[in-house]
Specification:
- By secondary structure, this protein is mainly α.
- It has one domain.
- It has 3 helices and no strands.
- The termini are far apart.
Length: about 70
């Protein structure tokens, strides 16, 4: 029974820590920060397109695909 209480206590502490972390994050309010966020989003999008499975292997992955890099 004690183990169950410890487990739920640790889960509760973790949940509270995550909630506090999310609440402390503030949105960027100045122009420089917004431009940095926008550039990061564009770069992430370009990376997803450039390094997709189709772009790298020139085909979609299949269940019979035995090649593993």
């Amino acid at each position: 029974m004690i183990e169950l209480g410890v487990m739920f206590g640790l889960m509760g502490v973790t949940a509270v820590a995550l909630i506090v972390k999310l609440l402390r994050r503030n949105r960027t309010e100045n122009v420089d920060g917004l431009l940095i966020e926008q550039a990061s989003r564009v770069q992430a999008h370009n990376n997803r397109v450039t390094y997709s499975s189709t772009a790298v292997h020139n085909s979609s992955p299949t269940a019979r695909d035995y090649y593993r890099p």
